[in-house]
User: Which sequence fits this backbone?
């Protein structure tokens, strides 16, 4: 049984990575329905939290059916991180996670996110301050290093464990790589198998199929995997991995009806949570993946990403269901290919 503090997550938990403008409550609900064991909020600026910024505070919204859940924060100032930890504790998540991995320039230039990988002692100091400021179990998500010459993650893992974190998620790229190239899990595996490490180690990066999840589980000995981009428009990846681990069999892909129902639920909840304008805009990144592999889908996709009227969008989704349900056998073949 894998645990973060006292939070039980099963034998090989599947985690939803925190993704800005993606892992919000509407999307998290879909992933939870499909078997995700633990989810994280979008990352939250500690400066926004302590200043009561609406966008930052809204990201603390947690619904009962989402639990267990982790709130992820990012920042660079000691006092701000400590004050933010106290605010997060009031929201009563199961876990508080610190983002030391975001590679985006506007975050990094403030020495937050992956920027802190240029100053490991400071990284340890910030982590200890957060651990000491809250009763919540604290976890960290980070990368292998700043660049190929500074892959200090093995040392970092031990030092962060020493100051009290309860789990570590590692993306198998450096900050310089951003999201390019193939994730290198070699060092993740060394940490997972290090006898000095007794906290859960979760691997992240390029897990996009049940086969790869099981291959990496067996090859690198991680305690679980964190899935990010492969879940966008594809929450079924969690149930597919669990089924493959249990049976060794590949599940049939979701049907047209399932895909349209998920996209419709996602849109409906986005409208409820964000309002019509933002709810419509932030759904657009998901449609391509919901209907990937559908022949001649481009005219429908174009409508979905240009239409502003929610009711029209629901009508377009129903039209997709009606048109493509008759082609279910063809679609199944293309999605297995």
Assistant:
């Amino acid at each position: 049984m894998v645990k973060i503090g006292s939070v039980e997550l099963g034998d090989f938990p599947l985690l939803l990575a925190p993704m800005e403008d993606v892992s919000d409550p509407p999307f998290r609900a879909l992933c939870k329905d499909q078997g995700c064991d633990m989810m994280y909020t979008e990352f939250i600026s500690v400066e926004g939290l302590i200043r009561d910024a609406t966008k930052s505070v809204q990201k603390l919204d947690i619904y009962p059916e989402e639990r267990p859940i982790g709130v992820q924060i990012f920042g660079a100032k000691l006092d701000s991180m400590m004050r933010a930890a106290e605010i997060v504790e009031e929201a009563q998540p199961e876990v508080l996670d610190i983002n030391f991995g975001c590679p985006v320039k506007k975050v990094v230039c403030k020495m937050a996110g992956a920027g802190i990988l240029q100053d490991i002692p400071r990284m340890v100091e910030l982590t200890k301050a957060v651990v000491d400021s809250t009763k919540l179990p604290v976890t960290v998500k980070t990368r292998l290093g700043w660049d190929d010459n500074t892959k200090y993650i093995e040392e970092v893992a031990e030092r962060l464990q020493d100051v009290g974190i309860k789990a570590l998620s590692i993306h198998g790229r450096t900050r310089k790589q951003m999201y390019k190239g193939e994730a290198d899990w070699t060092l993740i595996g060394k940490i997972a198998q290090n006898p000095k490490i007794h906290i859960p180690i979760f691997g992240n990066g390029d897990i996009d199929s049940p086969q790869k999840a099981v291959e990496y589980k067996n090859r690198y000995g991680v305690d679980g995997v964190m899935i990010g981009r492969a879940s966008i428009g594809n929450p079924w990846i969690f149930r597919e991995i669990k089924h493959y681990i249990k049976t060794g069999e590949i599940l049939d892909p979701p049907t047209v009806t399932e895909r349209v129902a998920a996209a419709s639920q996602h849109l409906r909840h986005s409208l409820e949570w964000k309002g019509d304008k933002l709810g419509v805009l932030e759904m657009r990144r998901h449609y391509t993946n919901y209907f990937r592999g559908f022949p001649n889908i481009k005219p429908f996709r174009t409508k979905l990403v240009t239409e502003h009227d929610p009711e029209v969008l629901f009508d377009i989704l129903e039209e997709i269901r009606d048109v493509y349900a008759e082609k279910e056998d063809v679609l199944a073949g293309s999605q297995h290919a």
In short: The longest strand covers residues 69-74. DSSP finds 15 helices and eleven strands in the chain. The chain has two domains: 3-247, 256-336. The CA atoms of residues 60 and 90 lie 10 Å apart.
